[in-house]
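Everyone, study these two lines:
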Amino acid sequence: MSEKKKDIENLGRRHFLRNSAVTGVAGAGLAGGFGAGALINSRQARAAGEDGIEVAPGELDEYYGFWSGGHQGEVRVLGVPSMRELMRIPVFNVDSASGWGITNESKRVLGESSRFLNGDAHHPHVSMTDGRYDGKYLFINDKANTRVARIRLDIMKTDKIITIPNVQAIHGLRLQKVPHTKYVFANAELPIPQLNDGRDLESPDNYYTMFNGIDAEDMKVAWQVIVDGNLDNTDADYTGRFVASTCYNSEKGMTLADTMRAERDWVVVFDVEAIEAAVAAGEYQTLGDSEVPVLDGRKGSRLTRYIPVPKNPHGLNTSPDGQYFIANGKLSPTVSIIAIDKLPALFDDAIAPRDAVVGEPELGLGPLHTTYDGRGNAYTTLFIDSQVAKWNIADAIRAYNGEEVNYIRQKLDVHYQPGHNHASLTESRDADGKWLVVLSKFSKDRFLPVGPLHPENDQLIDISGEEMKLVHDGPTYAEPHDCILLRADQLSPSRVWTRDDPFFAETRAMAEADGITLERDNKVIRDGNKVRVYMTSIAPQYGLTQFKVRQGDEVTVVITNLDQVEDLTHGFCLVNHGVSMEISPQQTASVTFVADRPGVHWYYCNWFCHAMHMEMTGRMLVEKA
């Protein structure tokens, strides 16, 4: 046996396959006539060959990633570092696969807002205890229809959605970090008259927007604070007292040109303890039919402080050591470092607002968002430069104080126009500095052309060493605005449903009122022109293979999946009725529709469940009225 063959045998199988794959790609390049150099020298090929970041078939990722689904109104679950899409969680959208927006259970969650067929999901964030992800909930906003949703991470289903009163366009969203996530903090971006009932239409001086505190458990708005300007992004500190938000349009302009006149805008800092005390003392008003306490946090209020920063700031991110809020300049090449330990003095009026700024490093064109590695370094996206700048916070503060020091560690090209970025565990105390995800808005030449509408481009960067290394490009659809990464061991998703889950509690109560045992009965209950059809399912058969109703009946079909095998999901699709839903193991799901056409109407299982899956069918027989 040759020494070369022995060397190959001594390589681990995965190591061999990885390196042969990279060599094979390079060979394909030569055969294709465009030269091996283009691929051998590409960062991705070198990273795959040298760093071995792939997650092999059958192996599991180290991190969960939750991506906002943007205009799709959903949340996408990815594994990191593989960047494999694992699941989509419908939130503000209609999803025919799961029946979201179609089933009774999902319509109860959507409430009156189910009339909206669109959503604009921006900022997903995971609940915390003592500044660490606790894996209980994920919250996300809908800018398009002024909503905030909560997702239970044990079942990966949305369980609460609220519409925020008195405001429009919820944009920035973050969570209270300590002692636990008591509040969801949500910025309403666009100012409106108060009340917005037709008064002051042509009087922008009477337009305002608000900072909103939402109770994370009961999902009701606890209080609102009126501010000057348009709120953008927000983040909370590690004491539970302070929250900061970037704020643009200090001019109160109604056009682009009008919002650009002033030299500076500001970061608004909110004192949560003072807000709670004011609410408890009754120092608030209510607006219209809303009972939510509304407080005045405009300039001069004891509840807020306004820190001047360069024009139109955008991202606002708390460092994992709890020392700084960093506001990203957008129209300035700088970011502003705000020392959180100076904020008590600022609220005591012992220092001027700008005294809280301890650094303002110049990074490049279009700084939008900053994330951290937990080792003292920050990573800021530069939208116009199409780069990520890695810089050292302590050195930037030294430079601000007059020292000759280079705080920039590296700039890495990304493709193209990066918006949000997010490093592993970075919003918690546990930032581990392994992976950085950059969500690039343009992809142009990175993928096969697919018409005038291009995909966007999620890029994975290895930040575990001194240098950033781009290791993955991945096309993605409209428009993943932001993401969050947490370790896989910080989540404990259910494998099958529990029969007493509150998600279908109202359906269970309806069955009990009808004298039905969901786990056993296959019966039809008629109540006037309302018909409730209860059936079980166990692969590959429904408990009822036919049921009869009359034309014009309102029919509710309730199905309980008796299978206990993990991953054995059933479906119910009624042909030509717009009815489709998922019923996972041990789940009960229901759907209501009108049987408006006489005749035979088949239903079938639309989730592949068995070798005889195609035969899992039944008939709805509709008698002519």
